[in-house]
Each structure stands twice: as structure tokens, then as C-alpha cells.
Amino acid sequence: MTTILCYGDSNTYGYNPVNGLRYPKDVRWTGVLQKLLGEQYAVIEEGCNGRTTVFEDIAEPWKEGLGYLKPCLNTHKPIDFVIMMLGSNDLKRMFHATAKEIADGAEQLVSIIKEFTKEKQGFMPKVILVSPPEIGADIATSEFARSFDEDAIERSKELPVFYEKIAKKYDCIFFNAAKVIESSKVDSLHLMPEAHKKLAEELYKCIMENE
Q: How far apart are CA 56 and CA 89, in angstroms?
């Protein structure tokens, strides 16, 4: 059995931008990926709405990805792959973070994944570092406009360059989600069903190429 841990935010959780609820499992990219991979794989969903890399929301500090990472890795070990897609929430105006600072946060998580799993399970999983989809052009009129300035659009476009450097540094697999999917027109932040399906299909190819 090959275990794949998917560590992310609301787009890994499966937030539906149309009604604010959660997509069914067979619509979420994690569920689609599980179906594509088959019974010899276990795809573990660890998506949390609002999760950041290392930035702490004072109102909801538990959404910071750093603090939950080690317990998560230890709970699900042994893990063969970690797919990490974080960074979108780090673009919120409250954090005042540059693309480089967001990438630095992602790097901290990648480093922990590598070091902690080596210690706790005796080997390091293959890490697929996913640069998240870009913030949509209409974020200023989105229901999430209270959280994101329009400059989040440009900063989101800068993330792949930094994420790719991290992937090379830590011998990870780099995956640029913005090349294959877009945020929905509904809220400029979350994915529609067709984007979930496409993301799953492309990540499936990525896993097969790196088994």
C-alpha cells in the first residue's frame, strides 16, 4: 500500500465557491486522485480552510500549517508521498507577506517533512511541492475581498519561481498548479469541479512518473 498525504488548505478540503459547502468526495481532487490510483494507494485528505504555511491568524491561530504538521505526519506514518499545496491564504492582507516570504514559509514545512519523517519512520517520502493556482482577476469583487487586496493577484503569480527553487534545493517534485487550473470566476479563489478533476489527473501523472 502506497500512502499519499495531501496537506493543504480549502482547495484540498474541497470548498465549493457556489454555496460555501464541501464538494462530495468524488468531486474533490483528492477523491478523484484516489479513484485514478486504485486500491493499492491510500490518499489521505488533510485540507483545512484558511490554512497558511507559517503565518498565524490571531483570531484562528490553529490554522497555521506549521503547528499541525508534525502531529499530522506522525499520525499517518508511514507516508510514501506528501503533496503540499499551501500559500494562497498567506496572500491575505493581514500578513503583509511578499511572495518570497510566503515561499520561505513553505520551505520551513518542506524541511520539517524531510527531517521529521526520516526520524520517525526511517525514510523520507517523496514530496510534491505544489505552487497553488493564481488568485483570480476579480478578487476585488469577490466575497473574500475583505481578506485579499488586488495586489495578491500579482504576488500569487510570483510564487512558482520561488517554489521551484525550494523543490530543487530539497530534492522535491515541483508542480505548478497555475499551468493546469484556474481559480473560479465565482470567487477568484476556489476551484470548480472541472478544475478539481484536471488537478487530480495531472497529479496522477506526476505520481506515476515518480514512483
A: 11
